[in-house]
Each structure stands twice: as structure tokens, then as C-alpha cells.
Amino acid sequence: MTGMVREFAGKRALVTGAAKGIGFETARLLAERGADVIAFDRSVVDLADAEATRAAVREVLPIDLLVNCAGTVELEPFLDTSVETFDHTMAVNTRAPLLVAQEVARDLVQRGSPGAIVNVSSLAAAVGIRDHAAYCASKAGLDAITRVMAVELGPHRIRVNSVNPVVTMTPMAEKAWSDPAKSGPMLARIPLGRFAEPAEVAATIAFLLSDAAGMIHGICVTVDGGFSAG
């Protein structure tokens, strides 16, 4: 068992959105299992800035394992969704993971080295959620990018998957789901009767990055307590 606990020894992992929530738990877990973890958050780089994002990633190469976890959400009814909200959400949630992964994967290909990437998406990629038009669109776009990455990067021995959790009790989620009037109907649709914990999502991410998931590639893994089964 000791060997398994240190399964990421000798690997360099980049985790975006690592200051809190799923990103924090993922960075902690990967470090615990032996990885040399580079953690990005808003104090390191503004992921809405394309050039700054590319430059920040280039500074920390080489990377073997990538977790694109940074995300943003602004709650606006569909009829009031602004251009500014939509563009910023897409820039952070969809374009930034693409840019970060491009830099990491380009370096892996040049080195002829295998790698693994997990994009942290959401159940919102497949389910319409009130006041989340920009967010749902951004996560659906991320899932589509994940599939294209899998098709193109697989021949280079770079595995790519996404993790799509139901509401996870992070500081960002509390903004949207702290009101029982909103959370009640959602909880009622989850057979396990609760929202996900960040550590549970982190454990799934760690599995997908590991050699144990060596043939899992190009899929969206739902971590939703059975929501999708209903």
C-alpha cells in the first residue's frame, strides 16, 4: 500500500484554482501522494488574460499532470445575461483550460513524455440550471474541448478526461446554493441526498491521473450522487 500512496512521486503537477474548494483539495491530495505540485490561483495569474496565462504556464514547465480546476460563476437570469458576464465566464472556464493545456501538452509532445490531464467541468454542462446560462455554456464547451483533446493527444500518450460534479460545497457554490429554496429541489433529485464534498471530487481526479486509469480516456466522469440516474 505504501507504494500506491506515493503513486505520483517524481511527477510535476499543475493545479489551477488551487486556493480553495476542489482545486485546494486536489493540490493537497496530489502532494500527499508524492507529486511536486505547482498551484495557480488568482494571485498568480488572471486566467481571463490569454497572454498572461500562457506566460505563467511556460514559466513552470515541464508538467506531467494537469488539473484545470479554476472557474467562475455569475448568477444572472437568461434574459439579463450580459455580454460582459458571458465573455468573462467563457474566458476563465473554457478558453483558459484550453490555453493551459496547449502549453503543457506541447511540451509533453516535444519531450516525448506521457501525461494526464483532467478538466474540472460540471453537471451543468449537461443540465440546464436557472440563472446559470453563461456557466452552463462554458462547461459544455469545456466538455467538447476535452473530447477533441482526447482524440488529438491520445496518440502522444497524453490522457484527457473531465470530471463533472453535481453541486460541490465550495465557497463558489455557496454563493449559488446557500438558499434552501434553491438547494432543496436540487437535493431532492440526488438519490444520495446530499451535495458532493471537495475531497470526494479530488479523489476522483487523482484516480483519473493515476496509472490505474490507464485506459480511461476522453470521457466525462459524473460525480453526482446518482442525479443523472433519475
Protein traits:
six-stranded parallel sheet; single chain; alpha/beta; 230 residues
Briefly characterize the structure.
With 230 residues, the chain is α/β, with parallel strands linked by helices. The protein contains 8 helices and 6 strands; from the N terminus they run H-E-H-E-H-E-H-E-H-E-H-H-H-E.
Tell me the total number of β-strands. 6
As for the number of domains, it is: 1
> Mind telling me which CATH architecture this is?
3-Layer(aba) Sandwich
Please report the first level of CATH classification, the CATH class: Alpha Beta
Instruction: Indicate the CATH topology.
Output: Rossmann fold
Spatial order of the strands in the main sheet? 2-1-3-4-5-6
Binned strand content:
5-15%
Name of the CATH homologous superfamily: NAD(P)-binding Rossmann-like Domain
**What are the segments in which pLDDT stays under 50 over at least 5 consecutive residues?**
none
Sketch the topology as an H/E string, one letter per element.
Answer: HEHEHEHEHEHHHE
- The coarse silhouette is globular
Q: Strand count, sense and closure of the main sheet?
A: 6 strands, parallel
| Straight-line N-to-C gap | 37 Å
Structural class: alpha/beta
Helix content bin: 40-55%
Explain this structure.
By secondary structure, the protein is α/β, with parallel strands linked by helices. The chain has one domain: NAD(P)-binding Rossmann-like Domain (Rossmann fold), CATH 3.40.50.720. The protein is 46% helix and 14% strand. It is built from eight helices and six strands. The chain has a six-stranded parallel beta sheet, sandwiched between helices. Helix 2 links the parallel strand 1 and strand 2 (36-40). Helix 2 (21-32) packs across helix 8, helix 3 packs parallel to helix 4 and helix 4 packs parallel to helix 5. The longest helix has 29 residues, at 83-111. The chain is globular. The termini are far apart. The relative contact order is 0.15. The mean pLDDT is 95.
